[in-house]
Specification:
Layout lengths: L1 E4 L5 E4 L4 E6 L3 E5 L4 E4 L3 H16 L10
Antiparallel strand pairs: 1-2, 3-4, 4-5
């Protein structure tokens, strides 16, 4: 889950696993898997950074995959 700020200043927590698209139009629009959209104050780069931080916390750092020969 990530926290973002709506244009009216209210804070909302979004399930980062359900984000499909982050667009700057010029406001930042978040599109969820069910088609709902949120318009937020954060930049697309900030939203992506929060999603990455969430996933690192939830799943740990990326590890190299070894392929059997």
């Amino acid at each position: 889950m990530i926290s973002v700020t709506r244009l009216d200043g209210s804070e909302v927590v979004v399930n980062a696993e359900l984000l499909v698209l982050v667009e700057a139009m010029p406001d930042t629009h978040l599109t969820m898997t069910d088609g709902r959209q949120l318009i937020v104050q954060e930049s697309p780069d900030e939203v992506v950074a929060r999603v990455i931080a969430y996933r690192r916390t939830a799943y740990g750092p990326l590890r190299a995959i070894q392929v059997a020969s």
